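Researcher: We're teaching a course module on how sequence relates to structure. For the next exercise, students receive a sequence and then see the predicted structure as tokens, so they can try to spot secondary structure elements on their own. Here is the exercise chain.
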Amino acid sequence: MGTLRSHAEVEYKEELEALKKQDSAHRPPNWDLSPQAVVDYLMGTTLKNGLEISPKYIGDRRLMEIAVATLTTDRALLLYGIPGTGKSWVSEHITAAITGNSKLLIQGTSGTSDEAIRYGWNYAKLLAEGPSESALVTTPLMTAMKDGKIARIEELTRISADVQDNLITILSEKTLPVPELSIEIQAQRGFNVIATANNKDKGVNELSSALKRRFNTVILPTPKTAEEEINIVKTRVAKLVTSLDLPAELPTLQEIQRIVSIFRELRSGVSEDGKTKIKPPSGTMSTAEAISVVNSGLSLAAHFGNGKLSAQDIASGLIGAIIKDPIQDKVVWDDYLETVVKPRKEWKDIYRACREISL
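Model: And here is the predicted structure for the students to work with:
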């Protein structure tokens, strides 16, 4: 029985090892690959031995070069953008390529405490022996400092401001004081932090200017072209179908194109031909949501259909992704169906399927 999802360094072990063998460029301290090879791993390339390195990020190569170059300096990296632009995905793969360990992860929430960032205590040992190094409970960040690795912090802006500020001393002084023991943990060469944050989430806690100065920010945009977005959806869906072992045929390019078109039009506020203005819904209409719609449809087709993705399978996922506010978004969706979808003769099946559920 296999795992539902392998870590990047496990799933792409063959690619990483092949890159390492032919990588002759300079490697910063404690890096498994050179910065150039890390970007090749992210963007995809063909090695001298003919092995294809699959693209992990489909977009502007320069953005990945800036992100990787940041980690060779004393500044941390902040991947910023709307939900669904691949921030976590990029963070995991950069870390896997640089250190071979993407598991040093802190998931930011409104309940993330100081102990999750700095360190905690084994209270049984603390009561029995008093404060000692053996009673310390290390966090992923402390482990990264000790080993010269990269720690990942997901959803940094969901963490309360006073807890965020624990990072200021760590990122500026590269030390983690433990006043209870009168010691400090000093970061080894190679240590750094990759954080992700988005600007659309409710309950966001803005970073202080002091903390912002410790990060170099790289904004990951939504895909520039429909072709880019279609390629992302197609690639990610194929991987998920394999990992979930769904007994369904991969969707045709036409079906993916239609879903991506719907998302791009609702996101941009105008139809593809530029003739019809569209009121955007309250959600982000991200690429990740488009992938989710296809996966949901494939699951329905596999278990309750004939294994082929149909308009009926797509419709329920579309409505769930678009109508977040049952009043405001329902009006937007109905208007889009009537003014954009209905006139397209080749989209009659999608129109009918969505109307049947909407009613």
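Model: If you want an answer key for the exercise: The chain has two domains: 8-219, 226-358. The chain has a mean pLDDT of 92.
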